[in-house]
Design brief:
Elements (H helix, E strand, L loop, with lengths): L2 H12 L5 H12 L2 H11 L12 E6 L6 H12 L3 E6 L10 H5 L4 E3 L5 E5 L3 H4 L15 H12 L4 E4 L1 H7 L2 H14 L1 E5 L7 H22 L5 E3 L7 H8 L3 H13 L3 E4 L4
Parallel strand pairs: 1-2, 1-6, 2-5, 6-7
Antiparallel strand pairs: 3-4, 4-8
Helix pairs in contact: 3-9, 7-12, 9-10
Length: about 270
């Protein structure tokens, strides 16, 4: 993609995020706008998710909800904006080795007692390749999703977690369902996410071809953009990036204990 076009698109994407204070006031205003909510719900029809009916929601859309440092940051932000935390998972998505986030579910980043940064090798990538995430298992035999859900309990933070696979599949591909997903964040909630922008056009296809058109369609029809809060800072160092992949102390300790008990290997990570 031409670098000038990329910069224009990236600027548009940056402008769609709101600050926490803006989110706090705006979600209150929109939630109390009964007519606006009614218009949104009529547009969604049977596609309206019932989780959004009784209270404003602060939402993470993840293949699997993970109790990492990003999750903790999100949780406190959700509480600040007075929206109830909700994770919408996609457990029917497929595990593939080239997706770093999916692979990271079975190879968590950890910090050992001596301060060394490591990755715990907890999954056979080959044996789980092309399986649904909900069917993937660790080398210990434990279900991958169950393992991470237990860690949410360890973190001590309560959050509603729902597998949204059936909703996605009923509508179709992301290009079909994304407009309806984002409609939930006009008056019923706030989405915590980062829409990636890379110089490689293939990496931009989702943001440019799916997200932006959905946002523009919503703004044209309702006069408002969906509420998005940027989940991670821009231009991070490798050290900062590693931090978001890591876990709060109690969870970090639990995973280390689990790995040692099951004689799993640690691989050292060198960060300059």
């Amino acid at each position: 993609m031409d670098i000038i076009i990329l910069n224009k698109v990236e600027k548009k994407m940056e402008n769609i995020y709101v600050s926490l204070d803006e989110a706090r006031s705006e979600i209150k205003r929109r939630w109390n706008d009964v007519e606006l909510k009614k218009r949104i719900e009529v547009e969604l029809g049977e596609k309206f998710m019932p989780y959004f009916s009784e209270k404003p929601r602060a939402v993470l859309t993840k293949q699997v909800c993970v109790a990492d440092n990003g999750f903790i940051f999100y949780y406190y932000c959700a509480k600040y904006v007075n929206a109830e935390p909700l994770a919408l998972e996609f457990l029917g998505d497929i595990f593939v080795h080239f997706n770093e986030e999916k692979k990271g579910l079975g190879r968590p980043r950890l910090i050992l007692e001596d301060g060394k940064k490591v990755i715990a090798d907890m999954i056979s990538v080959k044996e789980n390749e092309n399986k649904k995430l909900g069917e993937c298992v660790l080398t210990t035999g434990e279900n991958l999703v169950d393992f991470h859900h237990k860690l949410i309990d360890v973190s001590g933070y309560q959050i509603d977690v729902h597998d949204n696979t059936a909703w996605y599949n009923k509508i179709g591909h992301a290009s079909d369902y994304y407009y309806f997903l984002l409609l939930h964040f006009v008056a019923h909630g706030i989405l915590f996410d980062v829409f990636q922008m890379e110089e490689d056009e293939s990496e931009n296809s989702f943001t440019v071809k799916v997200v932006l058109p959905a946002v523009q369609k919503i703004e044209k029809q309702f006069g408002l953009k969906p509420l998005f809060f940027r989940l991670y800072p821009k231009n991070q160092t490798d050290e900062e990036d590693f931090y978001w992949w890591c876990y709060p102390p109690a969870v970090n300790k639990k995973i280390i204990e689990y790995a040692k008990e099951n004689k799993l290997n640690f691989k050292k990570v060198d960060i300059l």
